[in-house]
Amino acid sequence: MLGLGSQMLSEVVAGVLLGYGLDYMLGTRNRWIVVGAIAGVVVAMVTVFRIALRPRTPRRTPPGSRPAARTSPTAGPGGPRLPAPDPQQHRTDGDAP
């Protein structure tokens, strides 16, 4: 979304700058800046509609590449969870019931 927003902003700014350049060369006062700004907004909206209406296709892994490793369902933010220690496992012969 950040890329789309920056693209829209750059299209509007480009329209304003082109309008400013035309105003400077032709000696008009802010006429072409307004036209450039409107044209930039129109181009930005067309870009948004083109991206929104683009069909989404699932990504496929290229032949010969391995799919990404999946994490364990017990993995949390700190890494995989280890099982709780078994108290029966740590007994010595003298501790037998």
Notes on the protein architecture:
With 97 residues, the chain is mainly alpha-helical. It has a domain at 2-52. It has two helices and two strands, in the order ααββ. It has helices spanning 2-26, 31-52; strands at 75-76, 79-80. It has a two-stranded antiparallel ribbon with strand order 1-2. The model has no long low-confidence stretch (mean pLDDT 80).
Short précis:
With 97 residues, this protein is mainly α. It has helices spanning 2-26, 31-52; strands at 75-76, 79-80. Strands 1-2 form a two-stranded antiparallel sheet.
- Sequence of strands across the biggest β-sheet: 1-2
Order of helices and strands: HHEE
The helicity comes to 40-55%
Largest sheet: 2 strands, antiparallel
The structure class reads: mainly alpha
Q: Return residue spans where pLDDT drops below 50 for at least 5 consecutive residues.
A: none
The share of residues in extended strands comes to under 5%
What Rg, in angstroms, do the CA atoms define? 31 Å
Shape: elongated
Instruction: Count every helix, treating DSSP H or I runs of 4 or more residues as helices.
Output: 2
Distance between the termini: 65 Å
Features:
97 residues, mainly alpha, two-stranded antiparallel ribbon, 4% strand
Topology:
Layout lengths: L1 H25 L4 H22 L22 E2 L2 E2 L17
Antiparallel strand pairs: 1-2
Helix pairs in contact: 1-2
